[in-house]
Design goal:
single chain, alpha/beta, Glucose Oxidase, domain 1, Enzyme I, Chain A, domain 2, TIM Barrel, 3 domains, eight-stranded parallel beta barrel, binds phosphoenolpyruvate, binds magnesium ion
Amino acid sequence: MSDRPGHKNQVRYSGRAVSRGFAVGQIVSLYGERRQFFRVSIPESSVQGEIRRLQSAISTAKHQIQRLIRSDSSGLNAIAEGILDTHLLVLEDHTFLSKLEHSIEHDLVNAEWAVKSVTDSYLIQYRSLDNSNIRERAADILDIAERIRSALGGRRRSPMRLPPDSVLAAKEIRPSTMIEFGENRPIAIVTEHGGWTSHAYILARELDIPAVTGLRKILRHLRNGDRIIVDGYRGEVVLNPTAETEREYRSRQPKPPTIKRSSSEPPEPARTLDGHLIRLTSNLDSVNGLSVAKRMGACGIGLFRSEFLIGQYGRYPTEAQQFDAYSSLVAASDGETVNIRTFDIGVGQISGRHEDRERNPALGLRGIRLSLSFEHEFVKQIRALLRASAIGPLNIVLPMVGDLDEVHSVRGLIAKVAESLKEKDVPIGEPKVGIMIEVPGAAILADDLCSVADFFCLGTNDLIQYLLAADRDNENVAGWYQTLHPAVLRTVSDVIAAGKRGNRPVSICGEMAGSPFYVPLLVGMGAEELSMNANSLPEVRRVIGSIAFEEAQALASRVLKLASAKEIETQIREQHHDKWSHLFPGNS
Ligand code: PEP
Ligand code: MG
């Protein structure tokens, strides 16, 4: 602690490290649910443009509500219609609108912030009143604020420019927020909620942004502009650090490993001490990530999460935009295969209608279910994929598959689209069709699915959450989300074995595959392809190169007989201590 005058007290907090690295910067707090935002100061010259942005968002919000009221299919009852009428009245209220514009003009802030400060002042008034009818209007105001801010997100010119050295602080961070920043990235992230396999942290690791999560209730202690150290190795943050603490932290940070490889060398599989080959590929969340994957020696792209494009464009990308992205990936991959997964999102992420938000999106209309329900969009994606497959080796991966019928339906659609492209002499390739194994039902049917899928991508991130009924993004059940749970390991092992029996390659592509701690176990269970965040490739390659396949197999067969995650972890740590202490010094 420091009591120097003018220096706020230094406070340390412990959480969980979810993306390695170290950073010192200034806090920028994020607000909002569907679309996150922060306070941006704008110059006077931008005021009129910002007001126009606001007006256009208000008119979009009004149209959305009018459409909802008009649509017969929404089946609105009188109460719901009354609520929407109220929302419309607020959006047309001159006092409300002029307060918003006044805030932009006089406080010189972005429209998002103006919406927050004006609606906050309404909320304070309503909540202080004794009248329960008026207090209930607070919920309407929150809803309206959220709707306007979502509409503001549709305008690409939003001033989401972070000041230099920004450390984002949020309850949790949405992957779309990360995508929206583009190249203008934060230097670190601290959050109260979110797990290792949350998409936002998968992205943070890909972008090399240190992140610490599980910092319960930390937001109430943070102010915009506060200085903070983020230690993404130990899962610690230090708020208002003294100069001495900063020096001490900087001096103990590990040096990043040097990558000796030159990008002109062809990538090679990793090889265990006894010569067993493991193909290492990269997961990608953006087209830009390909250059890092190549530099790190990826033997192709094991999983491209195409839904990144929806985040980038704020809506379904057109066929031309998709073709552009897929073909540039394939063209730049030097003949290595690119597995492109069709959009894996939930219905709430695309419709822009609050009413489509599902109570439990992870179990809802998501992944292949959504694609099959919105066939015209799916056909556009299939067309773009087939056309890009004419340029080089491209495979299609289907997310959230639960049974054989879904794969039959998609194959039927692909055949139909291929036929119509051929009729028009559009060049197409013959992509293989693989499936994510991430729904327990699919894992159980793995032997049967070999008859309809060309290969499997084993998605441990979702598989764990569905097998153990523990939301991968929910801090409250982080202790139940156990990668080493015996049910998880036995399922992973069974799927690998089913792939071998059916002569179908199995690539492990959940975060587990990029963790040096779990890699020997996966190798021992027979995994022959691991697909991971590009930044993990050198370390995983090093670990594989320093273990013997036989030892890994022996470890796997011991561990697969155990019935508790704790016992399994102890076994692995003992093995690390006895045989591989040079590889895992921290675990000894
Ligand atoms: C998985 O579920 O393991 C996976 C790789 O897909 P995602 O993380 O995108 O859900
Ligand atoms: Mg998944």
